[in-house]
Every structure is written in structure tokens, then in C-alpha cells.
Amino acid sequence: MESNELRIFRVVAQTGSITKAAQSLGYVQSNVTARIQQLESELKTQLFYRQRGMILTPTGEKLLAYAEKIIYLLDEADKALNDSCDPSGSLTIGANHTISSLRLPKLLAQYHKTYPKVDLSLTTNESNELIYKINHFQLDGAFVKTLPLSDENIVKELVFEETLVLISSPLYNDISDLYSKPFLMNTIGCPNRIQLENWLNSKGICNIRYMEFNNLNSIIEGVIADLGASFVPESAIKEYEEKGFLKSFQIPAQYNITKSFFIRRKDSLMTSSLSKFIEMIELNTPYQKLLPKDK
């Protein structure tokens, strides 16, 4: 069982398709098929159900867990042996939709300019998916909104707490005028959306209509155009409100606080590229270090 076979196996498992795996790896399909068959023959077991795609068998699920660890350790060894004070190599960062549009563009541009030898990449997704990728060695670090109540594999490096406000077109002076309007929010599972629902439910409002946008700028533009209202970080709309493009309303404190974290896997290697990235976040954003007992 060679490491390259495990890498091919992992990509097939992740994509659920020989065709997609071949495209991702830059191989011809017949090569990928042959390597999977060779691995199954060597292990004397079936790793995939071949019906409407490639679906892992129970044995395949077990092998995937080991493959991820083996590939991670090999890559980590390479990083450790080649790491230096001058950051280089790959750095894969994840961020949820709000954070990626609100704070990251300038930060990433600054990092790329300061450390041009680092191959920096960004993945945008929901927090739960980013946490999954952290746990499965697919990201070096990620900005997320929510965390599991307890996950011993995750370290919270930095935290940022901010206030959420209800926003609308300047046409509305009374917050009650917004209760029946559509709310422009991220998809189900977004912490801000959950807090909005809890607040509205506390006021007896349960029939909530949504227009789903996974982009903060699109949400703000939609509110300015009077498509509906939204519930967003106060820092994101200050300039718009000062220019008279929209209006904000405060809601009770138990519903208006949101926290975001920068996380990494606890047993991951702290490379110089990741260490410098964390340092740059702390110096150039409102994110702050957590005390060891809070990590």
C-alpha cells in the first residue's frame, strides 16, 4: 500500500466519483480505476459500492480515517523538515461566508505581499463544514462562527466578539414595521439567523420569511434596495448608515452578541507560515488571543 494510492483513494472517497477524482488529480480515469482496483486487491476487500457513484463500504470508511492520518503525517513531516524562519510552502485557510467578505480580502492581500513564498489558498463554506475539514486534515486553520460544545481535537487560537443589529432601508422608522418583511440571511444553520429567530419567537413572531444569500455584500445591497431586512454585524454597516443608505435598530443584548473564532487542529504542526498568519490576524483585526484555559 503506497502513499500515492492512499491519496487517490482519499480523493475518490471525497468526490464520490472516478471522473471527478481524475479531473482533480490530473490523471486519466483508467489510471484512477486501476489504482483503486489494485488497492482493493492488495487489501483483499471491497472499498467502494459502485452504484450511482463511488460510495464507501464500511471497510472503506475505516481505511479513509487511516488514510487521512497517514497523508497528514507525511505532509507534516515534509513541512517540518522544510520549515524555516522564512515562511514558505502551502497554507490552506477556511472561512465562513460573512468573515470572508468582511475582513479577509485585505488581510490575505497583506499576507501574500509580506510572505510571497507561501502558497496561500482560501476555502469558503459553512462553519460546520469547515470544522469537518479541520478535523479531517484538509485545512490548516479556519474562521468559524460556531463550535461544538466539546471537541478535544480543536484549538481556538483567537476570538472576536461583536454586536449584531437589525438593518433596513431608511424608509422605516419603527422596528415593528420590519417583522413582516422577508429577512435576507445566510442559509439554515447560520448562528446569526438562529439568534434572529430566537428574538422574533420571543415576540411571538413565528412565520418568518427568508431570502437566502451567502454573501454579506449581497445582503447589504438587497436591504438598501428594500428587498427586506437583515441581522448583521454592526461594524459591517457603519459607513452605509453614515451615508444614509440604510438604518439600523438595536435589539436586546441576550440576542445581539456573536462570536467568531480562528481555529486549528490541536495536533497540527505550527509551521512558520501558520504562526505568521495568526500573528498578522491579531495585529490587524479585532481578533484577540484566548487564555490557555479557554482554548
Describe the structure.
It is built from 11 helices and 12 strands. With 295 residues, the chain is α/β, with parallel strands linked by helices. It has 3 domains: 3-80, Winged helix-like DNA-binding domain superfamily/Winged helix DNA-binding domain (Arc Repressor Mutant, subunit A), CATH 1.10.10; 87-161 and 259-294, D-Maltodextrin-Binding Protein, domain 2 (3-Layer(aba) Sandwich), CATH 3.40.190.10; 162-257, 3-Layer(aba) Sandwich (D-Maltodextrin-Binding Protein, domain 2), CATH 3.40.190.10. Strands 3, 4, 5, 6, 9, 10, 11 and 12 form an 8-stranded mixed beta sheet that branches. A two-stranded antiparallel ribbon has the order 1-2. Helix 1 packs across helix 2 and helix 1 crosses helix 3. The mean pLDDT is 89.
What order do the helices and strands come in, and which of them pair?
Blueprint: H1 3-15, H2 18-25, H3 29-43, E1 48-50, E2 54-56, H4 58-82, E3 89-95, H5 97-102, H6 104-114, E4 118-124, H7 127-135, E5 141-144, E6 154-168, E7 183-185, H8 191-202, E8 210-212, H9 216-224, E9 230-233, H10 238-242, E10 247-249, E11 257-265, H11 272-284, E12 288-289
Parallel strand pairs: 3-4, 3-5, 7-8
Antiparallel strand pairs: 1-2, 5-11, 6-9, 6-10, 6-11, 6-12
Helix pairs in contact: 1-2, 1-3, 1-4, 2-3
